Structures are given as structure tokens and as C-alpha cells.
Prior knowledge:
Elements: H1 7-13, H2 16-70, H3 75-112
Amino acid sequence: MGGKMTDTQKRTSGQAKPMAGFNQAQAAQFGMLGWFGTAMIESATRAGAEFTEFLNERIKEDVKTQHALLNCRDMDRLAEIQAGFLKTAVEQYAAETGKLMNIGNAMFEKMKSTPGS
Length: 117
């Protein structure tokens, strides 16, 4: 069993080198995925905290407006309260959209500087 290789031995001996390269590439990709996952988790955590704070502010604004509406006895003042509520809501949603976009952009910038890319 010394000198001559069987067909099975020939097939499997040639597979070791390609598999080694594949294993190295796979390890590098998983390393990048780990980093990518970290960037995603950090960004998702930031975005979640930001959005929770935003919702808290919106609820406060809703309660304040409901209180004003319930105590309003004048139709002109009622229209002012409603218009003010809508103006504030639009401004807050626009600002929040900008903040969330900045968080997303920061994540993509971090991803662009991924080691190995």
C-alpha cells in the first residue's frame, strides 16, 4: 500500500488545497460579518433609543393638546390649538426623520471603513 495512490486518494488529496483557501475566505467573511453585526446592533440601539425619546415627546404633546382642547370654549382658539398641534407634529416628525437618517448614514460610513474592504 505504499507507492501507488488509489482513485479515491487522488480525488481527496487534490481537495485539501482548494478547501484550505475556501476555509480562509470563509473565516475572513465571518470576521467581516461579525463587525457588520456590531455596527448594525449599535445603530439599531441608537435608533431605538432616539425613536423612544421621540415617541415620549409626541405623547407629551398629544396630552397637552388634548388638555387644551377639552378646556377650550372658543372656536377660534380651537382652530389655533389644532393648527399649532399640526405645525408642531410636522416639525417634530421632520426633525426625527433627519436624526434617524443621520444614524443610518453614520452606520453606512462605519461600514465603508470596514477592515478588509
